[in-house]
Design goal:
alpha/beta, 7-stranded mixed beta sheet, 4-stranded mixed beta sheet, 14 strands, about 40% helix, binds 4'-deoxy-4'-aminopyridoxal-5'-phosphate
Length: about 375
């Protein structure tokens, strides 16, 4: 079979299964998406704090930006000449905010998970990962020779059972979870995970706060802050590309872990560092995160209202966060409901397998703090 034929057939198969993905290009105007004379309220963005539409904040940033921090590329990897003072400043800000020894930043959250997990999990490691962790964590673990077992989603009894049965067979054990799960919007009990790991000296905990940083916690540092266990999580990771309206990923950890990653993490070593400009913006946002409580409060209010509506109309497990899925089952049902909402000017997207398990195709409504009230009311009505 020729390559051409191979690609055409693969695409046709996906079309028949209702899983063919396509790129949508838009003009972005704050919360509004525009294309060919049509417009929609964006309910599929990860800009959870609504910073994209805060033009005053961006102006304030540019006004104070030092020339040396405005570089558009780092032009080499961190270990060559790609570590600018902006990188170091950002890492210091992170370590100070989280009150941890050290922090390290990466090109993206995907790089972060793939790179850290493949660097730390060796043949003598058992990894126990929640069934629903993000693809980037699975990909990192696929690159490692560690033994991987998945525990049922958020089921700590199952995790404990696996831990009890197998921990003696390995030198080290790593528990891997997200705090807010990206497709279900539910939240891991981090305190319980900490208590569990503390019963075994060779167990460490890896928590991805991609969807929680900025949004949860008294100063916006995430669920670990909310659940008062920042100090007890060995690898506390997150991303800048969602609520922080920037780009990149981070880990806050001990100094020895940071040093190890600098020496072993291939996606860190062999990739161009993030541009100084983006680092400076991320630092600027992080330093103002604590003061963004009004945004978190509005997001929380919208979340509660939306969840109430979904609970009235649909019989399903309820989200505990601003990510609110409406599980419809078949790909066709999810696509058709998404289209219906899009016809009403609401850009809600269907998420289908393999991103979610088979027969759990859904709408993934992702709220942001700046959704206009009129659009939000229309959403409640259309659901
Ligand atoms: N972790 C989780 C839980 C995610 O949902 C995502 C992105 N959707 C990532 C990591 C990857 O982050 P980034 O987009 O910065 O590559």
């Amino acid at each position: 079979m020729s390559w051409q034929q191979y690609f055409v057939e693969a695409q046709e198969k996906q079309r028949q299964q209702g899983t063919l993905r396509q790129l949508n290009s838009f003009e972005h105007h704050d919360t509004e998406l525009r294309r060919q004379g049509q417009s929609w309220c964006n309910l599929a963005s990860n800009d959870y704090l609504g910073l994209a539409s805060d033009h005053a904040l961006k102006q304030q940033f540019y006004a104070q930006l030092a020339k040396a921090d405005a570089g558009l590329s780092a032009s080499s990897s961190r270990l060559l000449t790609g570590t600018f003072s902006t990188h170091s400043a950002l890492e210091q800000t992170l370590a100070a905010l989280f009150d941890r020894e050290a922090a390290l930043v990466f090109g993206s959250g995907y790089h972060m998970n793939v790179g850290i997990l493949s660097a730390i999990a060796d043949k003598q490691t058992l990894v126990l990962a929640d069934k629903l962790v993000h693809a980037s964590m699975i990909d990192g673990l696929r690159l490692s020779p560690a033994k991987l077992l998945r525990y049922k989603h958020n089921d700590l009894q199952h995790l404990e059972q696996l831990l009890h049965t197998y921990h003696g067979d390995y030198e080290r054990v790593l528990i891997v979870t997200e705090s807010i799960f990206s497709m279900d919007g539910d939240i891991a009990d981090l305190q319980a995970l900490v208590q569990l790991k503390q019963r075994y000296p060779q167990v460490a905990l890896y928590v991805d706060e991609a969807h929680a940083v900025g949004v949860r916690g008294q100063t916006g540092l995430g669920c670990a802050e909310e659940q008062q266990c920042v100090q007890d999580i060995d690898f506390l990771v997150g991303t800048f590309g969602k609520a922080l309206h920037s780009v990149g990923g981070y880990v806050v950890c001990s100094q020895v872990v940071r040093d190890y990653l600098v020496n072993h993490m291939r996606t860190f070593i062999f990739s161009t560092a993030l541009p100084p400009l983006n680092m400076a913006w991320t630092d600027f946002v992080l330093q103002r995160l604590a003061a963004m409580q009004a945004r978190r409060d509005r997001l929380q209010r919208l979340t509660l209202q939306l969840r109430e509506r979904v609970a009235e109309r649909y019989d399903q497990h309820l989200s505990a966060s601003h990510i609110v899925p409406v599980v419809l089952g078949s790909n066709e049902a999810a696509l058709s409901k998404a289209q219906q909402l899009q016809e009403q000017g609401l850009w809600v997207m269907a998420v289908r397998p393999p991103t979610v398990p088979m027969n759990q195709a859904r709408l993934r409504i992702s709220l942001t703090a700046d959704v206009p009230e009129a659009d939000f009311e229309r959403l409640l009505t259309c659901l």
